[in-house]
Amino acid sequence: MEKNIFTFHIHLPEGIERVGQPIILGNIKELGFWENPIVKLHQPFLENSTYWRSEKISISLSNFFENDDIKYRFAIQVPNKREKIIFEGNDDKDNRILDIERENQFAIWKDNVITLNNIQDYAFVDFIFNSITSYNLRDK
């Protein structure tokens, strides 16, 4: 069974943790079938309050046909609201498609009725630059 490893990176508005826990939900078991928040995001660097990422996630690709897409969206799980989930974007047309050719999936929160975007920094550039080696220069 072929498994690939993915890490999700996203810019979220500063202070988003006051709204709830950033998560990822998607249409496969490893991403909770749109209902069960398995993948939680965290802030890896104290000096950057808008950069969040997941742990490495192992996803089995052998169950998918060539024309199938792995779809996902970032969301905020709001505590004390009967596990309310605020998805990015406005509806299913804002679903993202996993790029199975890339280990790192980069994104910026898609606004919805709750406007959250106010991102002023460039953590992705720092992350990508610091991850470059002579073996992965072409990919990065």
Structural notes for this entry:
With 140 residues, the protein is mostly beta strands. The chain has one domain: Immunoglobulin-like. 6% of the residues lie in helices and 31% in strands. The protein contains 1 helix and 9 strands; from the N terminus they run βββββββββα. The protein has one helix at 123-131; strands at 3-11, 21-26, 39-40, 51-53, 57-60, 71-78, 84-87, 96-97, 104-108. The strands form 2 sheets. Strands 2, 3, 6, 7 and 8 form a 5-stranded antiparallel sheet that branches. Strands 1, 4, 5 and 9 form a 4-stranded mixed sheet that branches. The longest helix is centred in the last third of the chain and has 9 residues, at 123-131. The chain is globular and about 45 Å long. The chain starts with a strand and ends in a 9-residue tail after the last helix. The model has no long low-confidence stretch (mean pLDDT 82).
